[in-house]
Amino acid sequence: MNQAWRQILLAPDDDIRRAIEVIDEGAKRIALVVDGAGRLLGTVTDGDIRRGILRHVPLESPISQVMNAQPRTLPENYLRADALQLLGSAQVLQVPIVNDEGVLVGLETLTDLMKRPRLENPVFLMAGGFGTRLRPLTDNCPKPMLPVGGKPMLEHILQDLIDFGFYRFYISVHYLREQVINHFQDGSRWGVSIQYIHEDNPLGTAGALGLLPKDAVQRPIIVVNGDIMTRVNYEALLQDHDRHTPAATICTRQYDFQVPYGVIEHEGQKITDITEKPVHRFFVSAGIYVLAPQVVHSVLADTRLDMPDLLKREMANGHDVRMFPVHEYWLDIGRMNDFEMAQHDAASVLRHE
């Protein structure tokens, strides 16, 4: 995201002559029109001004007479792939970023997107599970390779991470591992590096970390379960982890559970309150983590270990474990109805079709 957008702001009553100055001085070929609360009202480009001049609009007129009042925008938690697609399809070089209230929060440009560096953090994709709850679909296909929107769900996860700049991947494999390896091979098809971690015996949801080469994890590592569909902003996740430097950051999802009855509170046989169908709210793990190198190095090779036990061990040792709430689309594909929902949602949430 370009950080110089505050220098190209205009008020709706600024005149066209002022807009010309802002566009020239800002060197972004665009000015952004906002109200007093910072809400985006429109954009102005050199082309908008030229079209206004052709309509004989005086340069002393307010900029609102020539601005584009319905510009294309990106949401605050946009993805690099979405920005590239929008900029490419709209044939524009820049697009404003607004939050849920319509307030301008930034400007993305095609030039900045193309300059975005690759991220050196390794990524570990967990793809060794049996997927027993999805049988018979997984009788002859590992769960991460089940197709969603015409591609294996693991491929969607991989491509999302690539779009954020990650290129060093490790994939844990066990059940029907050949299908995963034959599909992704060394990653060159996607321009990345993929190495495989072979679990000869199931090691739990964190045990495979102990099989990673020690020199491969010298900075925080992203760990992602291979059976989720999400639009989480991995860049924001990693930035949050780097800013606070905990032992681990867990992506969490709010889960609401409604009791379908009137709940009784009591003291002995005396009823003190009745709540009709109360809703209880919890945070659950979303299957995405950032782990500090020392956490990974603490996992012993060929030792079964589940992720909650690893994280509880870190907390017991006095190390910080943070949560990163995921408000973007997220679906854990664990049961048949989840898989059916993924197929239904694919057209609207997948980024690469």
From TrEMBL:
Keyword Cytoplasm in record: no
The keyword Cell cycle is annotated on this UniProt entry: no
InterPro entries: CBS_dom, CBS_dom_sf, Mannose-1P_guanyltransferase, NTP_transferase_dom, Nucleotide-diphossugar_trans
UniProt protein name: Alcohol dehydrogenase
One Pfam family, short name: CBS
Superkingdom classification of source: Bacteria
Keywords carried by this UniProt record: CBS domain
Domain CBS: 1-59, 67-123
SUPFAM superfamilies xref list: CBS-domain pair, Nucleotide-diphospho-sugar transferases
